[in-house]
Amino acid sequence: MADLDVGQHCQVEHCRQRVLDFLPFVCDGCSGIFCLEHRSRESHSCPEVTVVKERLKSDTHASYPCAFKGCAEKELVPVTCPHCEKNFCLRHRHQSDHECEKLELPKPRMAATQKLVRDIIDSKTGETANKRRKGAKNSATAAKVALMKLKMHADGDKSLPQTERVYLQVFLPQGSKEKSKPMFFCQRWSVGKVIDFAASLASLRNDNNKSTAKKLRLCHMTSGEALPLDHTLEAWMAREDCPLYNGGNVVLEYLSEEEQFVKNVDSYLE
């Protein structure tokens, strides 16, 4: 009777099977010899399987989901709100865009400061109430005329419905290659989002999310006032006192934290 205890042992620990010399199962991953039951890489815990799994795991990029309710966007890098410390997508990174729980409403003191600035400007220019009304009327008329030209040349998000677009002639920071650029934005956007979008269209340096000496601010062409980042264009267009006009002009300039308005706004029109 032939001896059945011939050949090599299967290299799986505690396996009593022997591999016949004329029918070996050699793993092409680890080059080990195994019985029929343990010939697959998974069944004998082949080291090559572990290496492949680790490589696949390391190749998977981390993603950061947006915390805004109903948003499924993800970013490859974290975009954290410095106020509520939650992560958001680029679309919802500003406080007003993600309805930040730490968003502070304009304080009366700030409103009083803004009124004081406007009063100082009015006193310097010697405007009377009648002249302001006349100037506002002239500005509105000029904006309507300019709007027709802006619609033909302005850059913006083409997916925005016409009913939501606000066309503005954006005067760029002093020293820029271009003096101004026609653009259009969504009327519901916050001023902060408008600045980011305009900076991208004009290829301007934008360090508004960093601690820098000066940051980009959007300023009213008439008063020179830097518009609050969390206000919307729609709110400023609805103002009775010194509103923004669809087809009007605005100034994009680098200002320090202490500066509340642009000086000598007429220089941008020269």
Concise overview:
This protein is of the alpha+beta class and about 270 residues long.
Stretches with pLDDT under 50, minimum 5 residues? 1-5, 127-135
Number of strands: 10
Q: Let me know the CATH homologous superfamily of the largest domain.
A: Phosphatidylinositol 3-kinase Catalytic Subunit, Chain A, domain 1
Count structural domains: 3
Q: Give the SSE order as H and E letters.
A: EEEEHEEHHEEHEHE
Distance between the termini: 111 Å
- CATH architecture of the largest domain, by name, is Roll
**Structural class category:** alpha+beta
What integer is the average pLDDT?
80
Shape: elongated
CATH class category of the largest domain: Alpha Beta
- Give me the CATH fold name of the largest domain: Ubiquitin-like (UB roll)
Number of helices: 5
Q: Classify the helix fraction into a percent range.
A: 25-40%
Content of β-strand: 15-25%
Question: Which radius of gyration do the C-alpha atoms yield?
Answer: 33 Å
Order of strands across the widest beta sheet? 8-7-10-9
The major β-sheet equals: 4 strands, mixed
GO molecular function: proteasome binding; zinc ion binding
Domain AN1-type: 4-54, 60-108
InterPro entries: AN1-like_Znf, UBL_ZFAND1-like, Znf_AN1
Protein name: Zinc finger AN1-type containing 1
